[in-house]
Amino acid sequence: MANDAQLWTPSPESVRSSNLYQFIQHINMQGEALEGFDQLQQWSVTNSKQFWLEIWQYCDVIGFRGDCVFGEAVAKWDQFIAARDTIWFPQAQLNYAENLLSYAFQEPDAIALWFKNENGQTKTLTWQQLCDQVSLVQQWLTQNGVERGDVVVAYLPHIPETIVALLAVTSLGAIWSSLAPEDTDIQTAMACFQPLQPKVLFCSNGYNRAGATINTEESNRKLVDHLTTLNNTCQIEYLQTPQFSSNYVDTFSDWQAILASYLSRGINYERIGFNDPLFIHHHRLPSGQNERVVHRIGGTILNHLKEHQLHCNIQPGTRLLSHCSCSSTALLWHTSALASGATLVFYDGAPLFPNMNALWSLAEESKSNSMHVSSVYLDSLREAVFSPGHFYPMQSLQTLIVSGPINYPHLFEYIYSYIQTDISVIPASQEEDIAGSFLIGHPMAYVDRHYMMTPALGCHVLIEGQNLRCTNSFPNQPLGFWQDSGENYHRTYWQENQGIWSQPEHSK
């Protein structure tokens, strides 16, 4: 270590082998002379058009790009504002699932999904098995009238079937929207989903949390009765109950029956416009108002590739463990790592149940290389003086991605004292509003007790006290709010600072 204040310094070997270092060399081969992350960040803002074009090319985005990187569109509200209304890649056509499943051609027998729940049940799917199941569910969706632009909703815990359903829906160019039953009551789910006029609902018969078994069949029935636009409902028998409850609905389609009803074949990918909707996130604003934020497909793919590969150093074969809710945009952030050839490792259940080892034993069992957890979760371990490093060597774990507000200096001291002495820590602000981070770390940085997140590549970010502003346009800005004239979207993000994105209630 260079000095006592530093907790960790990346080795020269790890720096040179990082995607970020290789990207800098890639840019320099085109006539630049960038040295380190700070200069790359400045270049990415000054040369925003070229930067996002390079991300498309360097990260091997699949799809038709077109000749135009960005152009002006109609104003979302009132007068035209460049930072708000610039349209990225207006000619581009691509498909979310096609980008995420492309690695299957290289390693069809490698593990794509590694799942475990708090009851100790585990399941893995290879890339080929994942593609086969996506094909089968896609055929069922097509038979039930789901087409490009339709909305499909899910009321599900974070289980393998959720990922398969999400990929099948988006493969058709349809729009995904999900809520988790463990953090969303049925009345809220009804209120959130009904305006979307969904064609299909995915749900499960229940879930487990902290040792309790919660049956959701009655809630599912209420939800289906409320959603009058549904063509069909698939209920996943996640809880292995010995007999059907009194609330079981025999008109629902069964997941296993769907898989058995078709023959797997090549997936048909419906490519849609770069700025078409991909998913709708149900977001509670600081005002208390609930809004349905519409995230666009192209910006989501580009930004997630940038964050995964350059900021978090995710490479083909990386095993990325994440604990997140289907109500959060973190679900999409984790799932998108498939596009970088990563294996998704995930856990359904209370993260501290059956004991504080829950996530760490999965990390060890799966030989995870990267782990994505919230700062709140780590703070709870720190307050309990729990030491994962005492139980597991975690020799495979190289990166810890920490989302949310950082408790300085205690969190970093805890990580390097109780988890791992040789690990890259990547803090990430992870704003739900943009399904990504305005502020984030990178693998070439040394870590000290007051390690600050830096502005993400491609974003010109200003921080004044607790206020975060982004002055330039970026591809993963939301398309807007569902069924909004543009006024609420403008008022929420753009009105406060005369056409500059202002992040509501930001804290570093």
Walk me through what this model shows:
The chain has 508 residues and is an alpha/beta fold. The protein is 31% helix and 22% strand. It is built from 18 helices and 28 strands. The strands form nine sheets. The protein has a seven-stranded mixed beta sheet with strand order 6-5-18-17-19-20-21. It has a five-stranded parallel beta sheet with strand order 8-7-9-12-13, sandwiched between helices. A three-stranded antiparallel beta sheet has the order 15-16-27. The longest helix has 17 residues, at 127-143. It is globular, with a radius of gyration of 22 Å.
- Low-confidence runs: none
Q: So how many helices? A: 18
Strand order of the largest sheet: 6-5-18-17-19-20-21
The value of Rg in angstroms is: 22 Å
Number of strands: 28
In short:
This protein is an alpha/beta fold and 508 residues long. Helix content is 31%, strand content 22%. This is AMP-binding protein.
Which tags fit this structure?
508 residues, alpha/beta, five-stranded parallel β-sheet, globular
Per-chain topology:
Layout lengths: L5 E3 L3 H5 L2 H10 L7 H11 L1 H11 L11 E3 L9 H4 E3 L4 E2 L1 H5 L10 E7 L4 E5 H17 L7 E5 L4 H12 L3 E5 L6 H8 L6 E5 L1 E4 L2 E4 L1 H10 L5 E5 L16 E2 H7 L10 E2 L3 E8 L5 E7 H15 L7 E4 L7 H6 L7 E6 L9 H9 L3 E5 H9 L4 H4 L7 E5 L6 H10 L4 E5 L10 E2 L6 E2 L5 E2 L5 E4 L2 E4 L9 E2 L5 H7 L7 E3 L5
Parallel strand pairs: 5-18, 7-8, 7-9, 9-12, 12-13, 17-18, 17-19, 19-20, 20-21
Antiparallel strand pairs: 1-23, 2-3, 4-14, 5-6, 10-11, 15-16, 16-27, 22-24, 25-26, 26-28
Helix pairs in contact: 3-4, 7-8, 7-11, 9-10, 15-17
